[in-house]
Amino acid sequence: MSQDWRKVAPGGTVTEPGSAVTVETGTWRSSRPVVDYDHCVHCMICWVFCPDDCFQTENGKLVGVDYFHCKGCGICAVECPKKCISMQEDVLA
Amino acid sequence: MTLKASERRRARSATGRAVAINGATLVAHAMRQIHPDVVACYPITPQTIITETFSEFVANGLVQTEFVAVESEHAAMSVCIGSAAAGARTQTATSGPGLALMWELLWVASGSRLPIVMHLCTRALSAPLNILCDHSDVMGARDTGWPILFSEDGQEAYDNAIQAVRVAEHPDVLLPVISTQDGFTITHGIERAEILDDASVRSFVGEYSPHRPLLDVEHPTTYGAWDYHDFYFEHKRQQADAMEKALGVIEAVGQEFGKLSGRSYGLVQPYRLDDAEFAVVVLGSAAGTLRSVVDDLRSRGVKAGMLRVRVLRPFPTKAVAEALAGVKVAAVLDRALAFGAPGGPLFEDVCVALTTNGVGPRLVNYVYGLGGRDTLPAQFLQAFEDIRRIAKGASAQPVVRYLGLRES
Ligand code: SF4
Ligand code: SF4
Questions:
Q1: What single DSSP character describes residue B222?
Q2: Is B143 exposed, middle or buried (0-12, 13-18, 19+ CB in 10 A)?
Q3: What is the DSSP letter of B132?
Q4: Ligand nearest to the CA of A55
Q5: Which value does ipTM take for this structure?
Q6: What would the pLDDT profile of B130-169 be if each residue is shown by its tens digit?
Q7: What pLDDT, on the 0 to 100 scale, is given for residue B295?
Q8: What are the chain A neighbours of B242 within 8 Å (beta carbons)?
Q9: N or C: which end of chain B has fewer CB within 10 A?
Q10: Cβ burial B355-371 (10 Å sphere, 16+ → b, else e)
Q11: How many beta carbons lie within 10 A of that of residue B242, not counting itself?
Q12: CA triplet A50, A55, A61: central angle to 5 degrees?
């Protein structure tokens, strides 16, 4: 998007589909979910509940968390039936 | 714009059908002829006639509009926003507290650049409870980013309703527009008016081609996205620009409408102002009474005149300054109170218009007609007498005065 006010999209409309992936919401986070893979049963409840689609999977297995988008809401930690997600203090690098 | 007599005759014979009718029903007819895709509104006095009449047109199959009977005005404006974003030509109508309930959404509609048309039948705001006319409601919407047209009578309410569509949808504007008529005086007052034929109105408003509609799946668009300190300011500046451009568009659309109907109104309507020393500035239906007051004064040799402001937003600063440039003292009439402000809303706009254009009749402000108080010739005569005394050296204080108020 141009920097001149005449050039921005009227009404603040967004015309590029899926552009939210470029917006880093990870900076909002004060604590981060950390998965204990030794106890994870790969039920994907966390994947279903995460409002920001942060759980990364491969071949039906949970493999990671996308901290670029994870805003630290803690929903996943509450919903995990095995209680294997812990919210840990997020220290700015 | 002035039409030649021959043009006026041609326009009339091609389209004119004279009827005795009230302003609200006239606007319902305008809506039927415009044939919007979606109308969402909630009945509220004195606008109820519009909702009732238009929904009857829908029920009787005279118009194929999707009529949404909503549960409140907040819902009405929300439906309008969704519908307009989807790409539908969309209208609503309301009055007083109904407009107040829409307030949050008025900003969403204008900020999203959705060309909705609202027919506003002006009404006082509670408390104490009052359903009659003043302009408190519309003044609350004055700075929400909607161009605002005022009509003097039912005929003009009808004419403005049709023109509002073209103004809103113009690519340089893309803003929602409010077209007002004074509650009861115009909405319920039966007068002679001319209704254009349906085909002429349909072709005047034309096919609607929406800007980036949600339903255009080939060009996906998000409305109402997050807009922070990074770009919000730029979007607001763009809205201000669209508002500035609306002035020229209102004039051009008005001229084109004049060719069709024989009636065109301009941004302001000066009456006997050319050599006037004393003038009154007014919005809406009181202009009719004022014309007769001016005629009366003229017949007694007083150089009186009137300026009716038809377009409140964008405010026609230059046109107002030019019209009043030669006047000695002017009284600005406000049918709304701006509590604690230096003057009423129209008064302040006129002050700025004159100051920034370097012309300056002395100005005083009169509040009149609140809550439906009758606006009688004697009140306006009193205003003229006052400003004539001011011209002879009487004090212009207090600046804000009241007409037709019980005071001893
Ligand atoms: S909810 Fe818990 S157990 Fe289930 S996949 Fe997520 S982390 Fe593993
Ligand atoms: S903390 Fe919230 S945003 Fe982050 S992964 Fe868990 S559910 Fe998703």
A1: B
A2: exposed
A3: S
A4: 2
A5: 0.81
A6: 999 999 999 999 999 999 999 999 999 999 999 999 999 9
A7: 98
A8: 10
A9: C
A10: eeeebebebbbbbbbbb
A11: 23
A12: 130
CA angle B165, B170, B171 (to 5 degrees): 150
* Ligand 2 centroid from CA A43, angstroms: 16
The model's pTM is 0.91
Phi, psi for B42 (deg, rounded to 5): -125, 130
For chain A (length 93 residues), average pLDDT per consecutive 10?
84 90 92 97 98 96 97 97 95 65
Using the atom order of ligand 1, give the atom closest to the CA of residue A85: 7
Q: By three-state DSSP, how is residue B363 classified?
A: strand
- Residue A24 structure tokens: 């880093």
Q: Where are the beta strands (DSSP E) in B200-260?
A: none
Per-residue 3-state assignment (H helix, E strand, C coil) for B78-130: HHHHHHHHHCCCEEEEECHHHHHHCHHHHHHHHHCCCCCEEEEEECCCCCCCC
What is the predicted pLDDT for the residue at A28? Answer: 92
Instruction: Write the CA distances from B296 to B69, B153, B328, B387, integer angstroms.
Output: 48, 21, 19, 16
Task: Compute the distance from residue A20 Cα to the ligand 1 centre, in Å.
Answer: 25
B86-100 pLDDT, tens digit each? 999 999 999 999 999
Length of chain A: 93
Cβ pair B312, B142 in contact under 8 A: yes
Q: CB neighbours (10 Å) of residue B341?
A: 12
Task: Tell me which chain B residues have a C-beta less than 8 angstroms from the C-beta of A15.
Answer: 212, 219-222
- Give the model confidence (pLDDT) of B110-123 as tens digits: 999 999 999 999 99
